[in-house]
Structures
1.
Amino acid sequence: MDLNTPLVPLAEAVGGAVAAWEDAVAGCPFARDAQADAEAMTDAGLLQVLDEFAAVRRHVDAMLARVAAEVVSRSRAELGSEGLARRAGYRSPVTLVSAALGAHPGDAARLARVGDAIAERMLFSGERAPARHPHLAVAVAEGRLSTAFSAEIASMLDQVALRADPAQLDRTERLLAERASVLGWKELGVLLARARAHLDPDGVAPDTRERHHRRGLCVWEDQDGMIRFDGAADPETGAPIKAA
């Protein structure tokens, strides 16, 4: 493989996963398939394999985020029927990505948002500027941070960006990118709440802001032509819906 390709980190991660798997079943002559191999592994071997495959997933998702963001860019509304998604037979880029992944539209949309957040920006002069979230971009590219955690961090930072001090915002992003990789989901939520309060002490109450951020509605057509819905509403928005 060309050492200059951006796929090198992914290839190395896959190599690490393969090596960990082979080491974990080295003393198991009767291993026959993936299930038999997993059942035959020691606890230590199983945990090592889990870590290595988790690293592979982070690298894969990092590349998918880039690709999803580019699909969205090539499908923007002003292109109309000439947009990539429409030409491929889909109503929206999120639907296209969702279908390709066999995933929920919300997951596809999150990948695209992360890809946009970590992508270098093109200036009117034609020059490239750093990503909106450069520290997250590095952590994601290196496979240290998942796209799920990156999405949460980027969302919080974007919410306070207009009111927070730019230098402080940058320091907070760098700190979150470094620490989030060793946290669980709940611990990340606590850390983000503290960071948000520090960056925007006079802003909207965190719980209210979070509810507003989490509002959304996905509408899509499945393979049988059924129109499906999935979404969430804050108490104020959801009350009339619930009553109906």
2.
Amino acid sequence: VPDPSKIVCCGLNYADHCREQNIELPKNLVLFSKFPSALIGHGDDITWAAGTTEQPDYEAELAFVVGRTARNVAAEDAYDYIAGYTIANDVSARDVQFGDGQWIRGKSFDTFCPLGPYLVTADEIGDPHGLGIRCRVNGQTMQDSSTAELVFTVPQILSFISRTATLLPGDVVLTGTPAGVGVFRQPQIFLQPGDVVEVEIDRLGTLRNVVR
């Protein structure tokens, strides 16, 4: 998936992630985007320019890739438009994200969307809502949850987006992150040069990137 027209992301879409913030579950899907220039692959380095952020964070995410042009798709038909599933890391500059009062700049640094290592076709996965999802930093488990915690399901997500924006083949949708992100830990934990970040999802493999 070298050049998606869109990378669409879902915020606050895991029940356990909402619980760790002591907030109610969202009544409507929260969407934001990452610029396609943020995309890197398995084994590529996560980097940022000196002085741009002091709080880079990790976010393990299930992603799906659109396989057919999708516009005004009903939720019950959504699986017909999904080519497959992969792993994403929604790397986030928290000081920029929260300092701006909106999310797109802090989410869209170059290299802040690792994706891979495989695109597993939808027929191999079937129902994507019972997959274990984990993030490790230097071998220490930071996130350990299941896609059963999704507030809005994959079909609901695709349908909701397609009502207002046509999804094109190759577009990538990140479905949200579970509890355990660094910014909400006590004490907070942020990525540092030399860190090895691994995101693992059952049946999809392990996405590995090093912070440089």
3.
Amino acid sequence: MPESAPLIKRILVVNDDAEDRAAVCAQLTRADVELAEAASAREMMQHIHELTPDVIVLDADMPDVDGYETCFRLKQAAAYKHIPVILIATSDSVGDRERGVEAGADELIAGPVAAHELQARVRTMLRMKGQYDDLERLLELRQALSYMIVHDLRNPLAAVVLYMQ
């Protein structure tokens, strides 16, 4: 029997500005959501395997490694490419949108972010991630069933082959 999906969803908010990070977290606070924070891309990458986020809300304009590069690195890693990333950029220019698409971002929002827009985008990304996780579980179940059927048919077929010889 497949294990049930966790009721609590994890959202990782990555922003180098503590006030901006707190504002985004305040907008996303809900009973069914667990929030995690990181102050830089490096900090996020060091702890992402422990955090296992369902959605990442990522500031595009961070020092050292910006959000675009961070998103690109996430989407290149097999273990993390399925995690939806929402980039928050300082502007909504064509260049920012193009960079976001090239980096693999699932959404790009221009800051300052309106609470209802961020909440709606996060809900959409959580729904997508839930569907992905359900599909993964079904594929694992299908694989296990295939192995079981092959194994269960092998024994009677071996007896038939032996009898024919």
